[in-house]
Specification:
alpha/beta, six-stranded parallel sheet
Length: 240
């Protein structure tokens, strides 16, 4: 049994609590904006892992505070990946244990593997253009999602005809070498990601659709279990 601290106690935090207790674990702390000072009370004697799902604006403050506590940290917050090297340096300096993931769903991580293989297969077929598209609820702070960015990076590393993600396309079409990455924010959509290839003749699409938050929550708990006894900078895909 693990003692898990939840940093961020919104919808995801509550879903993680349900999955953690179902697997026999205990919640040691439930920390949100109103009681953020309790973070300093976390020690290795009362907590085995911190699971952090918060906001991009508070990520760095939370990370720096957590790295001093001597407890493995699992972060599902996205929107900071452009500064990944900074996070790596902070973790290394503190000899800490940190794991992040653009998506903690087991299904999505299998989807990542499928996306990589499909891009390799499509690389010789230059008549096919490619795009990435994602949909989330209207409260999501970043766009495109971290998962969509991961999918796009996988395509870019395997599809020779695509070199970069197209920037803002509201005033111009993408260039042939640019990958279009679109996103929608509406209602209570949990998460839907699609990678498509289109030609003048036909199209081919792969898609992952999350029906609820349980898959993400379960993955975060599995990550906390996997991180026990480890030091270093990890990504959720390392679990696989």
């Amino acid at each position: 049994m693990l003692k898990i601290a939840l940093l961020g106690y919104g919808k995801m935090g509550k879903a993680i609590e349900q999955e953690a207790t179902a697997r026999g674990h205990e919640i040691s702390f439930r920390i949100d904006q109103d009681n953020h000072k309790e973070l300093s009370s976390i020690t290795p004697s009362n907590t085995d892992a911190i699971i952090e799902f918060t906001h991009p604006d508070s990520f760095w403050r939370n990370l720096e505070a957590c790295l001093t506590l001597g407890v493995p940290i699992i972060s599902g917050t996205t929107g900071w990946y452009d500064e990944r090297s900074k996070a790596y340096e902070l973790v290394s300096e503190k000899n800490a244990a940190f794991m992040f993931g653009s998506n903690f769903s087991v299904g999505v991580n299998l989807f990542f593997k499928l996306n990589e293989r499909l891009a390799e297969l499509m690389n010789p077929y230059t008549d096919y253009d490619c795009y990435v598209e994602e949909q989330h609820h209207r409260y999501k702070a970043d766009g495109p999602s971290g998962t969509a960015v991961t999918l796009a990076q996988q395509v870019l590393s395997r599809l020779d005809r695509k070199e970069s993600i197209a920037p803002d396309l509201r005033t111009r079409p993408p260039q042939p070498e640019e990958l279009s990455v679109g996103f929608i924010r509406s209602g209570e959509i949990i998460g839907r990601h699609r990678v498509g290839y289109t030609s003048d003749i036909d199209s081919l699409t792969i898609e992952h659709h999350a029906y609820n938050r349980r898959g993400f929550a379960l993955g975060a708990v599995i990550a906390a279990e996997w991180m026990q006894g480890k030091k270093g900078f990890f990504e959720f895909k390392d679990v696989f």
